[in-house]
Amino acid sequence: MLQAPNIFDLTQKHPVMPDDLRVVHVKERQTPGSVHYTIKRYSRASQWNTDDMGMMIYHYKKNEPAANYLELRFCIIGNAYCKGKEQECANCKNGLFKSCTEKEETIDVMNFTFLPEHLSQFVKSARNYDFTNEVLCFQHPSSFTKILPLCSRVRTILESLLNNTYSESFENIYINAQTQMLLLYSLECMLGNKDEENFSCKFLANETDRDKILKAREVLLEHIGEPITIKDLSRKVAINECYLKKGFKEIFGTTIFDFYQNQRMEHAKYLLYEKGLSVTEVSLMLGYSSISHFSTAFKKHTGIKPCELLLR
Q1: Most C-beta atoms within 10 A of its C-beta, which of 140, 217, 296, 299?
Q2: Residue 71 phi, psi dihedral angles, 5° rounding
Q3: What integer pLDDT is reported at residue 169 of this predicted model?
Q4: Residue 28 Rama label (left phi>0; alpha psi -120 to 50; beta)
Q5: Positive or negative, the Cα torsion across 288, 294, 298, 301?
């Protein structure tokens, strides 16, 4: 019987892989000031027997702040995909995956690296430095590695990242939004101090109302280049404006405006750095009335001007 690969080895940034472990899919992004991620899918030998696992790595060097980062690593075992994913077999094309004769079991390995300039935006006040704020601001004085319990919410996010059908810009918007939720849920799972069903807004105890708030988030992402008012957003998801604002803040920990602006600026960084678009093109794509308005918003969010990112 083959010895199962060490999950901690699999989740290293540059793992030494067994000779019989074949990479079948890779997706990655390395944009300055954004979440850096790598998603790799390996073929899985049927003899391997191991478990899903998650880790949080907090890397801190007091005298080298540029070397600081927070990393999430996950390894998911046992998913099955059509070997011809790009050109699926006839059964998969017809939605009959259970009848697929080309199914291949895999090991999915995901790394998400959050840099200080990205995490600092989530800390609104330095007055109450609890453990989470210390980590997000890199004020916690020592590095650590913690095993993450894979709660249902984390698993849902990981599955959505592995199986989304978006491409190009839409995929970037989607993955960026999901990685922020992954960070939120991972911190909650690690700290174990928040019951996901314990809402201060009583109306959120109703599953229908929660679904409307979740839908509102999806609508915002769909309108990343054409700003939508809260009034119109509330109509689209059929919920009172006041409930929408309160519910959104309760579930996602941020206001609708801050969430939307954050997603726009993250997407702007992707378009500028990865796609090589000009500042003018990006400002138009994101619905800004002028380049100066876009540049001001970008600098407020990232600390640098758009043109400075192009020089990196």
Answers
A1: 217
A2: -125, 140
A3: 82
A4: beta
A5: negative
Question: Closest Cα partner for 72 from 160, 178, 197?
Answer: 178
In whole angstroms, how far apart are CA 103 and each of 44, 98, 100, 176? 11, 9, 6, 29
Could you tell me where the DSSP H helices lie in the chain? 7-10, 90-93, 116-119, 131-136, 152-163, 168-191, 207-222, 230-237, 241-252, 256-269, 279-285, 291-302, 306-310
Taken in order of first residue, the domains within the chain and their CATH numbers are 7-191 (no CATH), 202-310 (1.10.10.60)
Question: Rounded to two decimals, what is the model's pTM?
Answer: 0.65
Alpha carbon distance 161, 211 (integer Å): 20
Cα 41 from Cα 27, distance rounded (Å): 9
pLDDT tens for 18-68 read 545 677 778 888 877 778 889 888 876 655 556 778 889 999 988 888 889
Q: What are phi and psi of 55, to 5 degrees?
A: -140, 150
